[in-house]
UniProtKB/TrEMBL annotation:
Residues 147-184 form the Peripheral subunit-binding (PSBD) domain. The lineage of its organism: Bacteria, Pseudomonadati, Pseudomonadota, Alphaproteobacteria, Hyphomicrobiales. Its cofactor is (R)-lipoate. GO terms for molecular function: dihydrolipoyllysine-residue acetyltransferase activity. It catalyses: N(6)-[(R)-dihydrolipoyl]-L-lysyl-[protein] + acetyl-CoA = N(6)-[(R)-S(8)-acetyldihydrolipoyl]-L-lysyl-[protein] + CoA. One of its GO terms (cellular component) is pyruvate dehydrogenase complex. This is Acetyltransferase component of pyruvate dehydrogenase complex. It comes from the Bacteria. Residues 2-78 form the Lipoyl-binding domain. It comes from Methylobacterium brachythecii. NCBIfam families: PDHac_trf_mito.
Length: 466
């Protein structure tokens, strides 16, 4: 029996991936740990390793294929004693490409659907939860939580699909876009029509919630946008996976998370002086290279981590009907790359020294620009720091990166005239920062308390060293 190699889920939110390159060819011997292929996600290029030994008998999905759904068959490995030439791909597993993104996936044959994936690196959907499977989804109890991606929820709202009647084929049985589209096409997941009644408005209120999360106002379509301009005035550039994800996630963030903004000016004269003193005292190796070189951003990350611990109610994220409060501070940092950005997360930022944070960020930034970050290095986090000061920006507001509950927008440090201790004008280095807050997690007073704690640490930076 051949061994199935499936498109792995390389992150909890991954639904599709691009098969960038095969590193093994048909007929090559394969042993456990060998790298079979490179998969491009919306954020990075990652390697797929073999789990079992054998011969790569059949490549089902050729390299260069885009938008291959998670758990789709991509190759077959002939096991011990099996003739690789006798192995053939099931007819229902033709690769899917970008040419027909709106088309529903072809049904899988029984052999591909029931075979045990020996090379799978993540959990598959439970038995009976496969799309187009023979079994119907198990009935869910009233009030039971439905696990579905934001995109799947939005499409369900648009198509009138009841997610309680849909089986998920994503990681851990999560409902993804493909499941909703298949349910809408077959009609099995259509929500029952409600009879008109005196209290119809009250009944309609819960159904309006998904629309508020992205299913209500629709953006202009491609042809509508084209209609505003002459054809020779522009060049069309298709979005890559990263830009599509940024567009989708941040649109959802602005529609779902109610933002409010708080701004404060921080005097950074003491911080700059301390930074110079610490950098001058950094130990050097035999070649004269310093062990570390602190940036202003390193102090900002540390200050944000400590501020979250001093205001523990703000060290939380929203999760449907509750908030998750954290024991340590996890601070993401926006890193710009060509065509997008990464937000690697400094774990336990409150506990790490400034030099450790500095060296971690240099490593993260280098690997982010090479698209070599691991998913666990840029997922999660409670807050983020976005610093545009190096571009001369004095002030801006940033969009919260779900599931985080805040983000700090940092402007440039500049000399300004301020009122001194004796009510006399003095010249000081001042930096403007703006905190975007998720109103579901914190109110104005709590957000102000967090930002005040941050300001105090920035203006009296010695507190970050003890």
């Amino acid at each position: 029996m051949p061994i199935n190699v499936l498109m792995p889920a390389l992150s909890p939110t991954m639904e599709k991936g691009n098969l960038a390159k095969w590193l093994k060819k048909e007929g090559d011997a394969v042993k456990s740990g060998d790298v079979l292929a490179e998969i491009e996600t919306d954020k990075a290029t990652m390697e797929v390793e073999a789990v079992d030994e054998g011969v790569l008998a059949k490549i089902v999905v050729p390299e260069g294929t885009a938008d291959v759904p998670v758990n789709d068959l991509i190759a077959l490995i002939a096991g011990d004693g099996e003739d690789p030439k006798s192995v053939s791909a099931p007819s229902g597993d033709a690769p899917k490409t970008k040419e027909a993104p709106a088309a529903a996936p072809e049904p899988k044959t029984a052999s591909a659907e029931t075979a045990q994936p020996a090379d799978a690196r993540v959990n598959e959907a439970p038995e009976g939860a496969k799309p187009n499977g023979a079994t119907q989804p198990a009935a869910r109890a009233e009030g039971e939580r439905v696990f579905a991606s934001p995109l799947a929820r939005r499409i369900a709202a648009q198509e009138g699909v009841d997610l309680f009647a849909v089986s998920g084929s994503g990681p851990r049985g999560r409902i993804i876009e493909r499941d909703v589209r298949e349910a809408a096409k077959s009609g099995t997941g259509k929500a029952p029509a409600k009879a008109a009644s005196a209290n119809s408005d009250a009944k309609a209120a819960p159904a309006a919630k998904p629309a508020a999360g992205g299913g209500g106002v629709q953006p202009l379509g491609l042809d509508q946008v084209r209609g505003y301009f002459s054809k020779d005035a522009y060049e069309e550039v298709p979005l890559d996976g990263m830009r599509k994800t940024i567009a989708r996630r941040l649109t959802e963030a602005m529609q779902i998370a109610p933002h409010f903004f708080l701004t404060v000016d921080c005097r950074i004269d003491a911080l700059l002086a301390l930074r110079t003193q610490i950098n001058d005292s950094a130990p050097k190796d035999k070649d004269g290279k310093a062990a570390f070189k602190l940036s202003v951003n390193d102090f900002i990350i540390k200050a944000m981590g400590l501020a979250l611990m001093r205001v523990p109610d703000a060290n939380a994220v929203f999760a449907e009907d509750r908030v998750l409060k954290f024991n340590n501070a996890e601070v993401g940092v926006a890193v710009a790359i060509d065509g997008g950005l990464f937000t690697p997360v400094i774990r336990k930022a409150d506990q790490k020294t400034l030099s450790t944070i500095s060296n971690e960020m240099k490593d993260f930034a280098a690997r982010a620009r090479a698209k070599k970050l691991k998913p666990e290095e840029y997922q999660g986090g409670v807050t983020s720091v976005s610093n545009l000061g190096m571009f001369g920006m004095k002030h801006f507001t940033a969009v919260i990166n779900p599931p985080q509950s805040s983000i700090l927008a940092v402007g440039a440090g500049e000399k300004r005239i301020v009122v001194g201790k004796d009510d006399q004008p003095v010249v000081a280095q001042v930096m403007t920062v703006t905190l975007s807050c998720d109103h579901r997690v914190m109110d104005g007073a709590l957000g102000a308390e967090l930002l005040s704690a941050f300001q105090g640490l920035i203006e009296r930076p010695m507190g970050m060293l003890v």
